[in-house]
Protein: HDOD domain-containing protein
Organism: Undibacterium squillarum
Amino acid sequence: MHLPRMTFQFPIATFRPVSNARQQIVALFPDFGNAAQFQIIQTLQGMQESGWFDQLAGLKLIVPVGDIAEIPADLGQRLPASKLHLLFDEQQCLQADHQARLRHLRSEGLSFMVMPSDAQAEWDGAQNLCYSLQEVLPTGARIRVSGLHRGIHLASGIADSAVFEQMKACGFQWFEGSYPYVPVSVQSQADQSARTRLLKLLGLVARDADTRELEELFRQDPNLSFLLFKLVSSAAFAQMTKVSSLNQAIALIGRRQLQRWLQLLLYASQANQPGSLHPLMPRAAFRAAMMEALVLRSGGSRDAGDSAFMTGMFSLLDVLFGTELEKVLTPLHLEDDVLNALMHREGLLGECLQIAAHADRRWNPQIAQLLQQRELDSTAYYESVQSAFQWVNQVCKEL
């Protein structure tokens, strides 16, 4: 049966995360596909009026500008200027009327990010640079980046971890690209043992095992026990009563939150550098929270939301561990609807997983078709994106 076509209130954008060197998300790079510039501004205004920006404290939006002349002079009053970086080609800045418009916008509190076009097109108003790595980094880029000490510079289109390290050495502070999805080298035996314990714990929690069984596995991993006590001592679980045992800590956090925390730890524990997150962790966390929001907005129950969260979190385990997803999932004894979504993208969970998998990548028209199938309009979509990134922003700071 064909569902009736829906008219979206606003164009649908995808949001590519921009991370710092520690892999915390610091900005979002909206991609509106073929939408006209006035449609993009209207959509951003709608997001502003709904409180979208207020819920994403600390995150900037890097907004591509096709034509500086078409930027409204009062843009700084329509949108939260402090939360935006307008991104445009530096070649546009060579025109005097464009420079006058940019000076006015800067006086309104807006900031800019410039894509350098060539060595002769340098503009003295460019403080923040964005280099696209769809090809090689241009000659002279390192010198120019290092010469602008106060700016924030973005390397976009990073393909793998090796290029990420090169861009970090070049002086870039912000990073965007598909590098989190490229499997890294084989883990050490210690990493594999820790992973095995986490998977066993998740299997025990999923079948509602006795607390003593959970406690026994925690006892085998001092680092995992430490992290559990650290979690229950955090602001989110702060209690007047001091925690004195693993049994008490498990009871305090509760099975539902324990399950979500262990799912996150699968990614967080694989970080190669101390103090840094694994690049996949924010992506998996986004999928999980986005899927939960989509299922709840589709009328699903809290239990259905939990299944959606789990599905999103587990959907990248094959990339994380560099092995077949079915092999990783076998010890977890998952429900059939979750397995069908993960292995075949089938059912409600499978459709929501496809939406979530598109939502933080480059724009693909299929995302609008998927939203139509689920009868979700642009308002529900943008609310889901906002709540998902809000949660990711929170957990990335806590881990």
Q: What stands out?
A: The radius of gyration is 23 Å. The chain has three domains: 14-181, 189-268, 280-398. Residues 1-7, 186-190 have pLDDT under 50 and may be disordered. Strands lie at 14-19, 25-31, 60-64, 84-89, 111-115, 130-132, 154-158, 174-177.
